[in-house]
Amino acid sequence: MDPLEDFIRKNREAFDDKNVPARAWDNISRTIGLRERTVWTGLNMWRAAAVFFMISTAALLAFGYRNSIAGKSEQAIAATEFTDVEQFYVKQISEKVELIDKFQKNDGLNGFTQDFHQLEAMYNVLKEEMKNSPSEKVKDAMILNLLVRIDLLNQRLHKLEEEHKAETREESKRSV
């Protein structure tokens, strides 16, 4: 066995309560050529924290900006889609009103029920509601209103066509 190791084993208890002074380790490391290298000194720690804060702030701002643009573009797309749907249905309604006008010999909708006018007034209220606080429910109600008005006009057109066919049959019977 090694005599140093044997000495340490025999006198271990005597070494356990002793502490080496901090200067001794500094002298030993300088003598050997070891230097303690720490990357995370106080100044470096603050620099790293500042860089992390700047990067995270920039990322959060970019993410928030991108989401706000995406939200606006989704709203713009929805508004454009609704405008297209509205234009389509309004065009159909105006065409059907013109047909009714022709059948009724320029009487227009005067002889027509008040339902159509009430639906039109309700649509205008819904349109104002859509401007003030747009929502999916209001949009659906507006589309439903347009569809009901088209259905009402279709029923009126069908009734007028039936009346016209009956008049045509009567006239053909009289001429015979």
Could you state the order of secondary-structure elements as H and E?
A: HHHHHH
What structural category do the secondary elements indicate?
mainly alpha
Question: What is the mean predicted local confidence, pLDDT?
Answer: 77
The amount of helix comes to over 70%
Shape descriptor reads rod-shaped
Low-confidence stretches: none
Strand tally is 0
Q: What is Rg? A: 44 Å
Number of helices: 6
Strand content: under 5%
The largest sheet is:
none
Distance from N terminus to C terminus (CA atoms, Å) equals: 143 Å
Structural overview:
With 176 residues, this protein is mainly alpha-helical. It has a domain at 73-175. Helix content is 82%, strand content 0%. The protein contains 6 helices and no strands. It has helices spanning 3-10, 12-16, 22-32, 42-103, 114-132, 136-175. Helix 4 (42-103) packs parallel to helix 6 and helix 5 (114-132) packs antiparallel against helix 6. The radius of gyration is 44 Å and the shape is rod-shaped. The termini are far apart.
Would you summarize the structure shown here?
This protein is mostly helical and 176 residues long. It has helices at residues 3-10, 12-16, 22-32, 42-103, 114-132, 136-175. Helix content is 82%, strand content 0%.
